[in-house]
Amino acid sequence: MILAMKAVSASTLRAQGQASNDPTFTSMSFLRHYMSWCGYAFSPGSVIFGPWFSFDQYLQANKLTGPSFSSLFRDLLQSAVSCFIACACIIYSTYLSSIIQASYFLSFRWINAYVQSQSFRFSHYFVGFFSQAMHQAIGFAAVTNPKS
């Protein structure tokens, strides 16, 4: 389903580019367009958890991310921090909440309900932070935080 949505996004952008005689898309050969679409469709930053970004934003991210060491280091550092927070969230969601729930002195009904809701929330935080880490690792942070 995600691949179908990405194919519609890329074909819509391609049709709009041909209708407006945009030189970016009219000069793009079939093989180059196909390889760009494969990179967009199978990008590990969005295939697993999302979030959605259009083909145009993907092409813009490829143009903005250059081979500079400082931007690469910054993106990888931000990705590592987000991945560390994601790991902390999944550890709390899976292990620490079950330890709190299994303790005998905290066997009240409302505390158990609170612990279960915390487990659900922190597994959602894991998905969010892991998705952010994947986007930053592929260089998508350059689109959301452009250089001044």
UniProtKB/TrEMBL annotation:
| UniProt keyword annotations, A-Z | Membrane, Transmembrane, Transmembrane helix
Q: Which residues form a coiled coil?
A: none
Transmembrane ranges, per UniProt, are 34-55, 76-102
Could you tell me the superkingdom of the organism this chain comes from? Eukaryota
The molecular function GO annotations come to: palmitoleoyltransferase activity; Wnt-protein binding
Listed GO CC annotations? endoplasmic reticulum; membrane
Instruction: Identify the InterPro entries for this entry.
Output: LPLAT_7/PORCN-like (IPR049941)
Any Gene Ontology biological process: lipid modification
- Name-wise, this protein is Pecanex-like protein
